[in-house]
Design brief:
Radius of gyration: 28 Å
Strand order of the largest sheet: 1-2-9-6-7-8-11-10
Mean pLDDT: 92
Strand content: 15-25%
Low-confidence stretches: none
Distance between the termini: 68 Å
Structural class: alpha/beta
């Protein structure tokens, strides 16, 4: 075949038959993607860059910036420099000298980050990449983890397999960005719907429900982040190998098959031969082998290299169980267990929960009154059922129709307004969940106060008022200053500090006049008048496991100036001694026991008084205010994933992987008016320690200084080794950001 240019030579790799110990009639092939000019990712680089040039996302001669420590870097270098683009590669110290030499020889500028950040080397590289993008006008980032052109590049690989081999029964591939295996298998399944797809991952990678271990030594597969390009609905089975098992398999590939591959190819080989030895006669298996071994001459292939324990067969585990060596789990592609969601919150967390369910081998189904409320819903892979979720009979009927003949793992929600609905549905189905009465007590703050009072848990004095004519007496009984709040709202909505009786009475009367909340649900028709408790504010992030309330950590919170109580920032874990943290956690446990909370995440807000911690509020759900986004980089615990696991009855992992500090500051308007824009974001992102700057406010929106959580305009998250490091980073970053407001 005549090739017009170097990049036209990408692809067209051979599929060679392997000599393996397998039953007669079993055929085993290796697709030698390592025979590309550099490696398999040459396909991705060509597809992504040519498409970007075609659409105008990459101008002629424009710079290209990519984060990679391996073959994607080489592919981008090959295609980018060949087409006349300056190429910047961001990598980390794990890059091997051979790859580094190739990149520099090809004409790339290589940027090596010096230390891991909150989510390992990947997040450190992405932070450096953001700095480069900000300083290079017109720069293009291929974004291999989320760019749909990544899996699209492998349609050609699938075409080659069918042309060379005909029907294929089993395809085995490593999973890193998700592009190669998902892109190839998606195209194969269109023609061969019964082909079995087997993924290969490494121990310590988060891709298939494992805790993150950033110290893993393998490269080219595994990840500390979840790429958008992995379609978990395509896979039938996943295997994990330890570093030593992968390296041993890589040497075996060279010795037994004379294929000098990298550890990704070796890992595929180990699983491929295992499956072949147990295959039925007539089965045709193919493994995708991505990389050559020249990058590993000083590690995997080093003279005298010794490997630890190497299993000779895998252990079958339940999907979601933590593994330490060669293990595998089956992932049903058809007839997966259903995880039912009753509505969702309207932030990104709710949609992430749906995608997390798919990743955990579940089929999410969202029951909602209005799917248009969730603009990101179409990209989640979730089935949607539109019904009146506030009508118990209608919701029950809809759930029965969907679950008929199917296995239901559980019911959950990411919306506080639907905790009771979820508990009732779980009870009816017999799936894991909290007692309905417990969720009712959590949702209705008047019932919370009553339960805490009966249990003797420290809390502010209070009065429950249902009659406007009784408000003045309630205020007099509680005393001034006081706090007046609705009993069924969320996010500090309508919570007011009142210095005088007239303000308290007026606010309480206004609240009693409200008949429906923001979700259209009828309000309880009551307000709370509470004693104002002064003191530092904290929250205990709790998780119920088999009736035991465990404390994941204590968050230190800052709030807006009175008379409102809007959270303006957090530090996790709090800068307090262990004894105080345990007192706060113990008070939270008492509070959860008092309301009957048993399972899943809970968020207990407290203030520290002279008499000790006093409970301000119990939320029977995951913390809001982006607190889970602090817990993840600080500890490695993904609380949202643990919520999904708890609801589905899957194994939990609440053990921290590391101990760091993470903090957040919300962006808010300095005065009322119309938002003109938020400036200084790029500069703030470059502040050392800053992990993320997000702006949610859109220009033209009416804004005001915060009175509720709905008035926030974005946030800054920073990570460091001490509270002082985090505080300095947040102060510097927020000082660079200007929220522009035009008086209207």
């Amino acid at each position: 075949m005549r090739q017009e240019s170097v990049i036209d030579g990408i692809g067209h790799t051979p599929a060679v038959r392997l000599r393996v110990d397998a039953p007669e009639g079993v055929e085993v092939f290796a697709k030698l993607e390592m025979q590309n000019l550099f490696a398999m990712k040459d396909r991705v680089a060509r597809q992504v860059i040519l498409e970007a040039r075609r659409t105008g996302a990459l101008a002629e001669g424009g710079p290209i910036v990519e984060s990679s420590s391996g073959t994607m870097a080489l592919g981008v270098a090959l295609v980018g420099t060949y087409l006349g683009h300056p190429v910047h590669i961001v990598t980390d110290p794990r890059i091997d000298p051979v790859t580094l030499a190739k990149l520099r020889t090809l004409g790339c500028e290589v940027h090596v980050v010096s230390a891991m950040t909150g989510q390992g080397w990947q997040s450190a590289r992405l932070e450096r990449l953001a700095e480069l993008m900000a300083g290079l006008p017109g720069a293009f980032w291929p974004q291999q983890y989320s760019n749909p052109q990544n899996p699209a590049a492998y349609r050609g690989l699938a075409d080659e397999l069918v042309a060379d081999l005909g029907p294929v029964d089993v395809v085995v591939g490593a999973v890193g960005s998700g592009g190669s295996l998902c892109g190839t298998s998606r195209a194969l399944l269109e023609r061969l719907p019964d082909v079995s797809v087997v993924g290969v991952d490494c121990v310590g990678s988060v891709l298939f429900g494992q805790p993150d271990r950033p110290t893993r030594r393998q490269s080219g597969l595994g990840n500390s982040l979840i790429p958008e390009n992995i379609d978990y609905r395509l896979l039938d089975e996943v295997h994990w190998l330890s570093d030593d098992e992968a390296f041993d398999a890589t040497r075996r590939l060279a010795r037994e098959q004379k294929i000098f591959g990298g550890n990704t190819s070796g890992s595929v080989y180990r699983i491929l031969t295992h499956l072949a030895a147990r295959a039925e006669p007539g089965t045709r298996l193919v493994g995708i082998m991505p990389d050559r071994g020249d990058r590993y001459v000083d590690t995997v292939y080093a003279d005298g290299a010794e490997f630890g324990t190497v299993a000779t067969a895998p252990e079958e585990v339940e999907y979601g169980a933590t593994v330490s060596g060669w293990s595998f789990a089956r992932i049903p592609r058809r007839d997966r267990k259903l995880l039912l969601f009753v509505e969702s919150n309207t932030t990104g967390t709710g949609m992430i929960a749906l995608r997390t369910a798919v990743r955990l081998a579940l089929e999410p189904v969202l029951f909602t009154k209005d799917a248009a409320r969730y603009p990101e819903l179409p990209g989640t892979g979730c089935r949607v059922v539109v019904c009146d979720t506030d009508d118990e009979a209608v919701l029950t009927g809809a759930i029965a129709a969907v679950s008929a003949g199917r296995r239901v793992a559980g019911v959950t929600t990411t919306s506080e307004f639907y905790l009771e609905h979820t508990a009732r549905a779980a009870a009816a189905l017999g799936t894991p969940g909290n007692p309905v009465e417990a969720m009712t007590r959590c949702r209705n703050k008047a019932l919370t106060r009553t339960a805490l009072h009966e249990a003797g848990v420290t809390q502010p004095g209070f009065a429950i008022v249902t009659d406007p004519d009784r408000v003045a007496a309630a205020v007099a009984a509680v005393g001034l200053p006081c706090v007046v709040k609705p009993v069924g709202e969320s996010g500090s909505q309508s919570v007011l500090w009142c210095e005088d009786a007239a303000t308290a009475v007026a606010h309480a009367v206004d609240l009693l006049a409200v008949t429906h909340n923001v979700r259209g649900q009828r309000t309880p028709g009551a307000v709370l008048v509470e004693q104002y408790v002064d003191g530092p504010e904290f929250s205990a992030e709790m998780f119920g496991v088999d009736g035991e309330a465990r404390c994941v950590g204590v968050t230190q919170r800052t709030v807006s100036p009175l008379p409102h109580f809007v959270e303006t920032g957090h530090l996790f874990p709090a800068d307090i001694d262990d004894a105080l943290a345990e007192r706060i956690a113990d008070t939270a446990r008492q509070a959860l026991k008092a309301v009957g909370f048993e399972r899943g995440p809970a968020h207990v807000e407290l203030r520290l008084t002279a008499d000790g911690p006093a409970v301000i509020e119990i939320n029977g759900r995951l913390a809001g205010g982006m607190i889970p986004e602090l817990i993840r980089p600080a500890t490695g615990i993904d609380l949202l994933e643990q919520q999904i696991r708890a609801a589905a009855g899957l194994p939990l992992n609440l053990s921290p992987d590391h101990a760091r500090r993470a903090g957040l500051r919300f962006l808010t308007a300095p005065r009322p008016g119309r938002l003109t824009g938020v400036d200084g974001v790029r500069q703030a992102e470059r502040v050392p320690g800053v992990e993320r700057v997000l702006v949610s406010g859109t220009p033209g929106r009416e804004v005001r200084p915060p009175r509720s959580a709905y008035d926030r305009l974005g946030h800054v998250i920073a990570v460091g080794s001490s509270p002082q490091d985090v505080g300095r980073a947040l102060a510097e970053a927020t000082g660079l950001i200007e929220v522009g407001v035009e008086e209207g």
